[in-house]
Design brief:
Oligomer: heterodimer
GO cellular component, one term (chain B): plasma membrane
CATH class of chain A: Mainly Beta
Helix content of chain A: 25-40%
Shape of chain B: globular
Strand content of chain B: 5-15%
Strand order of the largest sheet of chain A: 2-4-5-7-6
InterPro entries (chain B): CcmF_C, Cyt_c_assembly, Cyt_c_biogenesis, Cyt_c_biogenesis_CcmF
Order of helices and strands of chain A: HEHEEEEEEHH
Membrane topology (chain B): Multi-pass membrane protein
Largest sheet of chain A: 5 strands, mixed, barrel
Subcellular location (chain B): Cell inner membrane
Family (chain B): Belongs to the CcmF/CycK/Ccl1/NrfE/CcsA family.
Number of domains of chain B: 4
CATH topology of chain A: OB fold (Dihydrolipoamide Acetyltransferase, E2P)
Number of strands of chain B: 11
Number of domains of chain A: 1
Radius of gyration of chain B: 27 Å
Distance between the termini of chain B: 49 Å
Shape of chain A: elongated
Structural class of chain A: alpha+beta
Structural class of chain B: alpha+beta
Radius of gyration of chain A: 22 Å
Largest interface: A-B, 46 and 55 residues
Chain lengths: 174, 659
């Protein structure tokens, strides 16, 4: 075994290792990436029924209700980004920090009837915390600019008018 | 007064660290013994100063000194004493100070236990540690000073996040940080070797114990963190592929590779450049992991406050440390001579394979962790990757790793024949085949079956390795015992650590068969799960020191026989308007019975309660296996080869001249 042939072996082994890692990664990326969507995006472009997405927005105040399906409790609530609302059905225990009027991210799939079946509901550790995606979506829809104070209560959003938004300084990105 | 003393001690430590970074380096290049002798003295001095500083912060927290901003923001009078102490490192400023203190302790350890090192090497290692420490102490002083005062001082503090009020916080962060920071020592050895332009077997022998020690702490820390999230967060899971968890897994993977490749340097003087690169890479991943995550760049539940000044400082410091060391590596690595030759089928060959597979897994985890933030940074797309991605990429790479793990310790160095190795492993292979068949009939899912079989293979082949070395059952037991006593402890340590991996994987495979149900029940109602009957017998309010709680009583029976009574609860912390869920777990080491109390529904006259019931087979094995791995590492550290017989450098080596 010479130095040269050893080096060849090493290079071949490294190529196989990293090559298979890259192949696995690309393969997994094509099927396992989870996109974030806001309720209005779900309405305009509903994803395929088998595709897992993250739905983010604010929980509409007064929309949370409970049902019981075969002994298992199902929580139902509406998530809005200020333009559209999606009804979420979640079979399980809502996280401790889940509140009406606060931000939430639900992971799951969209049913054919337009409701969302969540397999996981995330509300973050801190009550003043807002997931980045939700903050971004609120900003984009022109409902909130983080530089001008706290996020508005979700209950007020559907009643907000264009005039309310126009009063704010025009610093928001379209 | 006391916080000022702490602040002064911190500033003093920073100055000593700066001196420690510069003076010994000059001394080592000029061969000035007096300047080199400063290194251990300054390192110990810095350690004492930082311990003092940290003690001052703990004192301020215990005595409720709310004029200290950090205490006011994170503590409260009503908080129990244990959490006043542990709360010191449950926030950004305190954790950075803890980080710096552990780093200074590493410097102190090299000063105290590294007396058998050549003085120039020791001086350079301590100098590199001092340089890193100076950077972080400056960071602590300028952007996140834990001793900053507020005026007027509030009457009471804001209290700590209730989730962190758990005994686990007392141990998990310090141990994990010791693991992270511990890899600074191999890093410093690598930089010192690059400055000297010389890596040889003695270097490998010096650096390995430090890498193994850091690896033990990191393994322990990850296992405890996983256990903590299992019983605190109450989701019934143990690993969420959260960026913070990945940030600890990535240095663990490269650190594991480092621990193995350093063996090749020590025994065969091969893979030297690669080992140096691994040492640099592991510490770089530890650094960027802890700080990128905590600076809030990666969106994570573990991120503390988000402050742009801190982010810029940290990024600059990371760029300096990582970029500088890689630049030095690029300049000096070509001067390091290549080492001994070996055939592909040999102990070295399998260790190379181990390194390739570990680094491939590391690359995959790194991609999965960094891809989403980069996508949102560059293209404004919000995506996330979760468990399905990591399962699909890491498991196919981990399975061959485990298969080769069984062969590794049996292979002779340099050149090996497969046949004798296979002959010694025949019974392990038979047991694995039986496990494969049994698991196929029991589980009927491809990945858990493969995981079970490879785990059994790893455990059996580790046992076969020891049995072979002891000539067990081929000799009288007395002679085997004699052999066992003369066998180096490192051999037992390695076998234990490998078996620990197998036990962890068995636990993971068991958890993939976990069953759970979410039910809504009245008091007195029973539900069935995994052959057990769960009855909610009572729900009562209770008072804690700074919370009120609702405690449920659940009786679990198997065929009418009472197995256990669980008391899961829900706590409401008034000062933060926050509730936490306290899980109740009963374990018999073969399975966990895990109960969570959820919301109360209905009116007070006829309430129903949501319960989440889990049956988690083999769950405790994951953490037990992690501890066994760490214990194996510790056992090999206690080997007398490490303690006595200080390794000496060979006299006739070609020294690269350092200008």
């Amino acid at each position: 075994m010479t130095r040269k042939s050893r080096r060849l072996w090493l290079v071949v082994a490294c190529m196989i290792g990293l090559g298979s890692a890259a192949a696995l990664t690309l393969n997994a990326f094509s099927s396992n990436i989870v996109f974030f969507m806001a309720p209005s995006q779900v309405h305009s472009k509903p994803p395929p029924a088998d595709r897992t997405i993250r739905l983010g927005g604010m929980v509409v105040a007064g929309s949370v209700r409970q049902e019981k399906v075969k002994d298992a409790p199902v929580a139902i609530f509406d998530v809005t980004d200020g333009q559209a609302a999606v009804t979420v059905r979640y079979e399980g225990i809502l996280p401790d920090l889940f509140r009406e009027g606060q931000s939430v991210v639900a992971v799951g799939t969209v049913n054919p009837d337009g409701t969302f079946r969540a397999s996981e509901v995330l509300a973050k550790h801190d009550e003043t915390y807002m997931p980045k995606e939700v903050a971004e979506e609120l900003r984009r829809s022109g409902k909130w600019d983080p530089r001008f104070g706290k996020a508005p209560d979700a209950a007020s959003w559907n009643t907000m008018t264009a005039a309310d938004n126009a009063k704010k300084p025009a610093t928001q990105t379209p | 007064m006391n916080p000022e003393l702490g602040n002064f001690a911190l500033a003093l430590a920073c100055c000593m660290a700066a001196g420690q970074a510069i003076l010994p380096l000059i001394g080592a290049s000029r061969r000035d013994a007096r300047l080199m002798a400063l290194a251990p003295a300054l390192a110990v001095g810095q350690m004492i100063a930082l311990i003092t500083s940290f003690a001052c912060l703990i004192h301020a927290a215990i005595t409720n000194d709310f004029s200290v901003q950090n205490v006011a923001a994170n503590s409260a009078v009503s908080k129990p004493l244990l959490y006043k102490i542990t709360g010191v490192w449950g926030n950004h400023e305190g954790s950075v100070l803890l980080w710096a203190m552990i780093l200074s302790m590493c410097g102190g350890a090299v000063a105290l236990f590294g007396r058998n090192l050549p003085s120039a090497l020791q001086a350079r290692v301590i100098a590199v540690l001092g340089g890193v420490a100076a950077g972080f102490e400056l960071f602590c002083l300028t952007t996140s000073n834990p001793f900053a005062r507020v005026w007027p001082a509030p009457m009471d503090g804001q209290g700590m996040n209730p989730l962190l009020q758990d005994p686990g916080l007392a141990f998990h962060p310090p141990i994990l940080y010791t693991g992270y920071v511990g890899f600074a020592v191999p890093f410093a050895f690598a930089i010192a070797a690059l400055i000297e332009g010389r890596v040889d077997a003695a270097w490998g022998r010096w650096v390995r114990p430090w890498a193994v020690a850091a690896w033990c702490f990191l393994t322990c820390g990850i296992a405890m963190g996983s256990w903590w999230s299992y019983y605190v967060l109450g989701w019934g899971g143990y690993w969420f592929w959260d960026p913070v968890e990945n940030a600890s897994l990535i240095p663990w993977l490269t650190g594991t590779a480092l621990v193995h490749s350093a063996i090749v340097v020590e025994k065969r003087e091969a893979l030297k450049i690669w080992t140096v690169l691994l040492a640099i890479g592991t510490f770089s991943f530890s650094l960027s992991g802890t700080f990128l995550v905590r600076s809030g760049i990666l969106n994570s539940v573990h991120a503390f406050a988000n402050d742009p000044a801190r982010g810029v400082f940290i990024l600059g410091l990371l760029a300096l440390v990582i970029g500088g060391s890689l630049l030095l590596f690029a300049i000096r690595a070509p001067q390091l001579t290549a080492g001994g030759l070996f055939a592909p089928v040999s102990r070295e060959g399998l260790l190379v394979l181990n390194n390739i597979l570990l680094c491939s897994i590391c690359a995959v985890v790194l991609t999965g962790t960094m891809y989403p933030p980069f996508m949102s940074l560059l293209f404004g797309k919000t995506i996330s990757v979760g468990k399905p991605f990591f399962d699909a990429t890491t498991i196919p790479l981990a399975i061959p790793l485990m298969v080769f793990m069984g062969f590794g310790p049996m292979m002779p160095w340099k050149r090996a024949q497969m046949w004798p190795v296979l002959r010694r492993l025949w019974w392990a292979a038979c047991v694995t085949a039986v496990a494969l068949v049994v698991a196929t009939f029991q589980i009927r899912e491809i990945l858990p079956v493969l995981a079970t079989a490879t785990a059994v293979w790893v455990i059996c082949s580790s046992a076969a390795d020891i049995a072979e070395r002891l000539r067990l059952f081929r000799q009288p037991l007395g002679q085997s015992w004699q052999r066992a006593r003369s066998l180096p402890r490192a051999v037992f340590g390695a076998a234990l650590a490998h078996a620990g991996v197998g036990i962890v994987v068995l636990g993971i495979a068991g958890m993939s068969q976990a069953a759970h149900r979410i039910v809504e029940v009245h008091v007195g109602q029973s539900e069935m799960l995994a052959g057990d009957s769960w009855t909610l017998t009572d729900v009562k309010p209770a008072e804690g020191p700074n919370y009120t709680a609702l405690v449920a009583t659940i009786e679990v029976r198997h065929n009418g026989r009472l197995i256990t009574t669980l008391h899961p609860s829900k706590r409401t912390f008034a000062s933060q308007h926050q509730t936490t869920t306290e899980v109740a777990i009963h374990t018999n080491l073969m399975a966990d019975i895990y109960g969570v109390l959820g919301d109360k529904h209905g009116d007070d006259a006829n309430p129903t309660y949501v319960l989440r019931l889990h049956y988690n087979p083999l769950a405790p094995w994951m953490w037990l296996g992690g501890l066994i791995m760490a214990f194996g590492g510790a056992l090999s550290l206690s080997d007398r080869r490490v303690r006595v017989g200080a390794p000496r450098r060979a006299k006739t080596v070609d020294v690269v001249v350092v200008q």
